[in-house]
Amino acid sequence: MMTALEQYLQQIREKRIAVIGAGVSNMPLIALLRKAGLSVTVHDRKTAEALGEQYDKLQQLGVSLVLGEQYLDALDEDIIFRTPGLHPNHPALTAVRAHGGEVTSEMELFFRVCPCKIIGITGSDGKTTTTTLTYEFLKHAGYTCHLGGNIGKPLLPEVDSMQPDDLAIVELSSFQLMGMQYSPYIAAITNLTPNHLDYHKDFDEYVQAKTSIYTHQKEGERLVLNVDDPVTRTLEIGRGHDIRTCSKVVKPENGVYLREGVIYVADNGQDRVLMNAEDIRIPGAHNVSNVMMAAAIVQGLCKDEDIVQVAKTFGGVEHRIEFVRELDGVRYYNDSIASSPTRTIAGLNSFAQKLILIAGGYDKNIPYDVLGEPICQHVKTLLLTGATAPKIRACVEQAAGSEKPEIIDVPDLAAAVRTANAIAQPGDVVILSPASASFDCFRNFMERGERFKELVHGLT
User: For the chain, which terminal residue's Cβ has fewer other Cβ atoms within 10 angstroms, N or C?
Assistant: First the structure.
């Protein structure tokens, strides 16, 4: 009997297929399509020289290539797999649909052919930690789990090895969710704050993309929401969902809540103690929320003991308030994941003392006014670099009635680390928490975080 993936590949055997973008998520897709003997054309903005080793791999796979600035001009294939970074309403894709072509994505194909239940997590902040905690809770409970998606690992190559009783835990970005015709068995939204407004036309479109995570759920499937977030709290949810909520303020009928430092599980009005919040190993009030979200997601799948054991021992995800080293009594932390003001605020709130903060980077056209007061409260020296440096400086200088930190402009990350090392005193904390994307100097936040750690480990 053929698998769902084999059936799909058989159905499209006579189709002309285009894959837009030869990035991390699409290379396994390209290899899979070619292994099945399908004709594939790869369209990418980069030149052969810019693609480097990727170009050699594509040549070995035997695909046709359309490269350079005009890479979308000849887009006339029957099935188009778009890269998440290309807006689904781009004129070139709209033209494809107008002529009867199909526009889909690697993630949508995974949802279509995955043989096991999918748990999907999205949100503006906290989704990677919540996704990882969910995975760890379920793995501790004995499930065979597959972790991937926006977290950095495509899951499509693992489909053939997945079993019906397995679980796929997937982090989903707004880019991946736009246009999706599938929803996970369990869906969760951590929060919704302005982000990626260089991609989305406005905040409403961003919210619409995020909330599509539950649009196609079947009756009785679970939706987990953080109702402390003002936007998430006001979402219009249709009937038929198994809704679980998380809150540090209100007690839900079904979900997880915090009261006087203790985390409780509410199940049809019956409450039970889960654990003390102070026993969670990873620091920060935001991580209490992440643990609560993950605990709500796995209700009925895990025992409380599985959740507590992992929460007490889980050390966090790389690039998220990650301890790098201590040198001469100064502690250095890598929070490169903080590509928006709300993420940086969460990082600043994780420490009791005033910090030396390295911030700034690529401008996603999001507002920074919310960042001024928290920086004044939690930062003693602010080192700024990148396109967003003037915005961050302005919001700090305009913060009313607050003691302002010293602000120093630096040309790049290397200079920021050197300056921080020069001014830091024993007992200080230096944190990279940019409140900005990394694309001005780095391919992604991971590369930025790795460079920061390399620079810090190079200090003497």
Answer: N
Question: What pLDDT does 316 receive?
Answer: 79
Helix (H, G, I), strand (E, B) or coil at 258: strand
Main-chain dihedrals φ then ψ at residue 423, nearest 5 degrees? -100, -15
Reading the block at residue 66, the tokens are 């359309």
Q: What distance lies between CA 182 and its chain's CA centroid?
A: 19
**Strands of the 102-105 sheet, one edge to the other:** 64-67, 40-44, 17-20, 79-82, 102-105
pLDDT given for residue 202 in this prediction = 81
Contact 143, 104 (CB under 8 A): no
pLDDT at res. 364 = 85
399 vs 169, 235, 237, 368, 438, CA distance in Å?
Answer: 41, 31, 37, 11, 25
Contact between 207 and 124 under an 8 Å Cβ cutoff? The reply is no
Token code pair at residue 407:
């602000």
How does 202-239 read in b/e, with b if 16+ C-beta sit within 10 Å? ebebbbebbbbbbeebeeebbbbbbbbbebbeebeeee
Does the pTM surpass 0.90? The reply is no
Dihedral pair phi/psi, residue 4, rounded to 5°: -60, -35
Burial class of 266 by CB neighbour count within 10 A (0 to 12, 13 to 18, 19+): buried
- The DSSP output letter for 277 is G
Residue listed under structure tokens 């979200």: 293
Distance CA 251, CA 271 (A): 10
3-state secondary structure of 166: coil
What residues of the chain score a pLDDT lower than 70? 195-201, 401
pLDDT of the residue at 195: 64
User: Rounded distance, CA 31 to CA 435, Å?
Assistant: 36
Look up tokens 């005033």; give the residue: 354
Q: Which two tokens stand for residue 65?
A: 């290539």
Please report, as a single letter, which amino acid is at residue 335.
D
| Cβ proximity of 87 and 206 under 8 Å | no
Q: What is the model's pLDDT at position 448?
A: 96
- CA-CA distance, 213 to 122, in Å (whole number)? 8
Place of tokens 């654990």: 275
For residue 430, give the H/E element and its range: strand 429-432
Q: Do 145 and 135 touch, CB atoms closer than 8 A? A: yes
